[in-house]
Amino acid sequence: MSPDGKKATVSLPKVGYVYDVRMKHHFNLNEVDYPHLEDPHPEDPRRIYWIYDILSRSGLLQVMHAVNISPATDRQILRAHSRSHLEFLKSTELMEKTSLVLAQEKYDDVYLSALSYYCARLSAGGLVALCNEVARGGLQSGLAIIRPPGHHACVNRPMGFCLLNNIAIAIRELQTSSSVQRVLVVDWDIHHGNGIQDMFYSDPSVLYISLHRHDHDFFPHGDGGDVNKMGRNKGKGFNINIPWTTEGVGDGDYLYAFRKVVLPVAREFAPEMIIVACGFDAAACDPIGECSVTPECYAAMTAMLKEVCPKLVLSLEGGYNLEAIANSALGCAKALLNVKWKAGLVPMAATVMKYATMPEAEIRGSPAERRTFAQTCPRMPVGQAVGARQRRCG
């Protein structure tokens, strides 16, 4: 109650979101001809709607602020991508179905429709608009409910469900048109964000930290996600990979990594904005990630990052179980709004308590000399972790 006897109102932080139903028009043409495929493409157009719907039904959307989307411009795209890549994507708008199917087969895990490029421009433009609004102070933080995803897209080519690198485009726009110059990217998608890493590998103004599976030739393959990939030239030490060497990792692993590496390094870097490559394919029940992260853990990681820098934007990347991504996004939105989740639902309480009381990692030496976490991080035994995942997913 307030001093005058009236019911006190709770002041929520000003949190924004971007969403546009038109992004569903990026779809797999093969599934139009064969709608009952036993193995449909995991990057389902319904992914963004499931997130939007749960936020609406929960009442959170009503206290968040919608940001208008404009498609990314050529100028914005060319700050991150080559002219040849842009012209290729433009050319798909005029292709017939047969040509689109042939074009997509040239790339690694990409599908194309006549509206795919427009949807990719909406996706990138939505993130740009949200980041700009947070940068200028109109919003404190935000959630970009966008697709197609972006963190695999390279300078010269699409890759891994991604056509344009949304986060790279947004960062270059921030650095060009706002006071924000120093950006931390935390990528908790279960796949290494090779596109983001490559674009900023020599750039000390962007610190990229990725937590990802890096086992058994897990996508995107190769050695780009190795712990020893630390950046180049002036960017040396500003690229940190935390590779998991098995499936089944869960909340304890992520919380430990955050407390021992992500948070100490983030505080030292002192970012002016944090952008999360917010994939939910490490979530329990995801058919590709095969890990055990819960919505409560995603909420906890969001809250931790917001303490480092309140200018925080989460940008949807992967995640292929519709219910899991919806609940995970709900947890993140609650954290942005300072809405507490039920304490009884927080998993692995003993692990959380153990690591919460540990001293923060000491930061010594040059940035390039201190990245040995992945070789020493203890984790839950694989059998126990996989068993926990199976119990959650039935």
UniProtKB/TrEMBL annotation:
Top-level taxon of origin: Eukaryota
UniProt EC number: 3.5.1.98
Domain Histone deacetylase span(s) in chain numbering: 41-335
Leading EC class: hydrolase
Species of the source: Coemansia spiralis
Gene assigned in the entry: HDA1
Name by which UniProt lists this protein: histone deacetylase
Pfam families per record: Hist_deacetyl
A GO term, aspect molecular function: histone deacetylase activity, hydrolytic mechanism
Compartmental location: Nucleus
GO term, biological process aspect, one: epigenetic regulation of gene expression
Family: Belongs to the histone deacetylase family. HD type 2 subfamily.
